[in-house]
Each structure stands twice: as C-alpha cells, then as structure tokens.
C-alpha cells in the first residue's frame, strides 16, 4: 500500500511561509531533502481541506487531553468536521467566516467556495465498500417537523439512537443525551470503519503481557506479536517511536509511543508539519514487536470548545438558532485481523443564548506504554480517528 501522501499538505503550508519539502526513501537511513522543488498542487477538491482539518483535530485533541488527563481519548475528526460543515450551509452569511475560521480554515488561503466544494467531494469519496475495507459515512438532520422533537423529545431521542445504532452496526450503543423540549433540530453525522491489516497478526502468537498505564499502575492485556516489515522511526527530538501499520485499502494507522515522561511534549508538538517530518524520516524495516489488543470508547461534550455562532441549521423558516449541545462518541477495537471503529456527532440546535464558555525494536520488544493513534484515509488525506490509548482495556 502506498504511503500517506503528505505532499498534499505542503502547498498550503508553503503559502503560510512554511517551506517544507518531502522525500520518501523507504530503505535508506539518510535523510535527503534533495532539491526543494515546488510539489504538485492538490489534485482533488478535498485535498484543500487536509491541513485545516488536521490542524483542527490536533487543537481539539489538546483541549480534550487537558480536560481528561490520564484517560483514554478517541474521536473522529472527519465526523466532527462534517457535522459542523452542515451548519455552515445554514449559517447567516455574516457568521460563515467565523464558523469556518473556528474549524481552522484560513479564508485567505482557501476561499469559502472551495471549502464547500471540498466537503462535498469528501462526502463522495470517503464511503468505501470493498472487503476487507468497509468505510461508511453519512449524515442526517432531525428537525421538529420531521420527528416531533419539540413535542416528543423522548421519542426523538429513541429515533436518533436507533438510526445511529443501525448505521454503526451497534458499536456505539445509546449515546445521545437527553433532548430538551426547546430543541429545534439535531444534526447527526456518523462513521463506521472496518479495516483488515495488510499484514494480519497470528492469533497463536498472542499472549498476556503487562501494559504500563503509568508509573504506578500496570494491567495485563493480550499482546499480539509479529515479525514483519513496517515503516518505523525513532524521533530523538520528540523522544517518541512511530510505527505505521497499513490496512488493506486506502487506510493506514500511525501509532506513536512517547518515551516515559514525554507524552506532554509530544502532544504539544502535534502539527501538520510534524506529520510531514515523520513521513520524511519513516523507513521500512524488518521488525519483531509486540503490540496490545485494544478496545476503548470515549464520549465528549464539545459545545464549549467550538466556535460560538448563530446558525440556521439548514432549516427553512428557523433562523437564529444556536448550538446548545454537541456530543461526540467514538469506539475502537484493534485485534489480530485488523481494526473496527465507529463514531457519531450530534449537534443540538435551540433558540436562545449559547452556553458559557527508544531504539529500533529487537526480538521480544514490547510496545507496552500509552500511545497515540491516528488513522488516515490516504486518498483524501482525511484523519478518520485520533486518540490516546492509556489503558487498552478501556477501564
């Protein structure tokens, strides 16, 4: 499978006075930046969203990590971005720029019309049904006239639960918080991913091992083992190890293991430029490593972390609605065959005021400490999942 096409990020970064070049030489230890020619322009409309969406994801991650230190974190940046992009279509013209800038867009670099075109292109390209890769993505508006939200909030909540449960194949369960009587509309975005590894793990090699949650606590987890060739690096500047595991199809996942005591340093350095640097340094190596099986989920309230603007939600005759509640839930499992994940974002709109505001792995090496996980759809450059695994058991 091809490496992530991080050159798609470079033209926009260069426009912001970041002169970066990218060379990917998998089997060489030397880092050769070569002649820094201008890379090709993004070839798809959705590529123009990549930098802003990734930057938005990293900024949101830092806020969630600050609010939940020492806990598992998981969310789908693409689900949240698309849910909020729905608001863009219904927002008064005067508030569109504020909403887009809150999502990380620089309108002097990417005009509003190109942003809208990019999101439409993203919705067309992301759904993939080609086993062993299944990626579904969709969104729906639940309005008062359609579901009786204003008259029967309990019934509307049940309707939304059933819809999301069906679209995510039961992986999320009940997650929408109680709807208020004054709720005028609920916008829902959902994502489901089932992606087999390009090189599956052998189940017979899995055995219980200790995982170091922190300096005082360990848990026993099923630890998978594999001897195979993967892209790998140790970043001495950020004191972390990066392992890239490809899935079958246009999906790949980065696992980033900071050295003990360096998680905060790594989190502060999460930037699009960091991804480009890693892609420059990643090399294909023969590895013998152990990796934990994972089963985690995370629910986040996001309304206080997002731009505060008045929107219409795409509802004719209902101007002046405000974001009253934004809930996001994501779940992920990693095993010998591959990964499975689901995420959903619901945005509740109501009238009235808004809320206040180490070395190369050798035989037997175990990656048994907290790590970051980033899953990308390589064709579009979209970040499907971003999270931190502190306890693989989800406890």
From TrEMBL:
Keywords: Glycoprotein, Signal
Domain Serpin residues, every copy: 58-392
InterPro entries from the UniProt entry: Serpin_dom (IPR023796), Serpin_fam (IPR000215), Serpin_sf (IPR036186), Serpin_sf_1 (IPR042178), Serpin_sf_2 (IPR042185)
Gene3D superfamilies: Alpha-1-antitrypsin, domain 1, Antithrombin, subunit I, domain 2
Low complexity biased stretches: 335-344
Coiled coil: none
GO terms under cellular component: extracellular space
Oxidoreductase recorded as keyword: no
Domain of life: Eukaryota
GO molecular function term, any single one: serine-type endopeptidase inhibitor activity
SMART domains assigned to the protein according to its UniProt record, in alphabetical order: SERPIN
Disordered, as annotated region: 335-365
First and last residue of the signal peptide: 1-21
Similarity remark: Belongs to the serpin family.
PANTHER family referenced in this protein's UniProt entry, alphabetically: SERINE PROTEASE INHIBITOR, SERPIN (PTHR11461), SERPIN A13-RELATED (PTHR11461:SF377)
Name of this protein: Serpin domain-containing protein
Organism: Molossus molossus
């Amino acid at each position: 499978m091809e490496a992530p096409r991080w050159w798609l990020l470079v033209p926009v970064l260069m426009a912001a006075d970041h002169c970066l070049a990218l060379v990917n030489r998998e089997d060489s230890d030397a880092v050769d930046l070569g002649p820094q020619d201008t890379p090709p322009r993004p070839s798809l409309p959705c590529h123009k969203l990549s930098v802003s969406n990734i930057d938005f994801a990293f900024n949101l991650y830092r806020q969630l990590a600050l609010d939940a230190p020492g806990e598992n974190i998981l969310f789908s940046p693409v689900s949240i971005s698309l849910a909020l992009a729905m608001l863009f279509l219904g927002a008064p013209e005067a508030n569109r720029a504020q909403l887009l800038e809150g999502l990380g867009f620089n309108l002097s670099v990417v005009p509003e019309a190109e942003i809208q075109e990019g999101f439409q292109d993203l919705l067309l390209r992301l759904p993939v049904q080609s086993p062993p890769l299944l990626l579904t993505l969709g969104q729906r508006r639940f309005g008062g006239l359609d579901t009786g939200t204003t008259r029967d909030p309990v019934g509307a909540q049940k309707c939304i639960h059933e819809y999301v449960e069906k679209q995510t194949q039961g992986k999320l369960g009940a997650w929408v918080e109680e709807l208020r009587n004054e709720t005028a509309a609920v916008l829902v975005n959902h994502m489901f991913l089932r992606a087999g590894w390009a090189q599956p793990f052998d189940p017979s090699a899995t055995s219980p091992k200790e995982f170091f949650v922190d300096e005082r606590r360990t848990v026993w987890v099923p630890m998978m083992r594999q001897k195979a060739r993967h892209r790998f690096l140790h970043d001495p500047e950020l004191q972390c190890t990066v392992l890239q595991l490809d899935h079958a199809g246009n999906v790949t996942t980065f696992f980033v293991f900071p050295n003990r005591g360096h998680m905060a340093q790594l989190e502060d350095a999460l930037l699009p430029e960091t991804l480009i640097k890693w892609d420059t340094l990643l090399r294909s190596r023969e590895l013998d490593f152990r990796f934990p099986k994972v089963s985690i989920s995370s629910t986040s309230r996001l309304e206080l972390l997002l731009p505060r603007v008045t929107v219409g939600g795409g509802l004719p005759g209902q101007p002046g609605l405000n974001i009253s509640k934004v809930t996001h839930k994501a779940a992920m499992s990693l095993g010998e065959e591959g990964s499975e994940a689901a995420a959903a974002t619901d945005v509740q709109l109501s009238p009235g005021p808004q809320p206040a505001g180490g070395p190369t792995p050798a035989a037997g090496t175990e990656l048994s400490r907290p790590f970051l996980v980033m899953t990308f759809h390589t064709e579009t450059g979209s970040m499907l999942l971003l999270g931190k695994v502190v306890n693989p058991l989800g406890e």
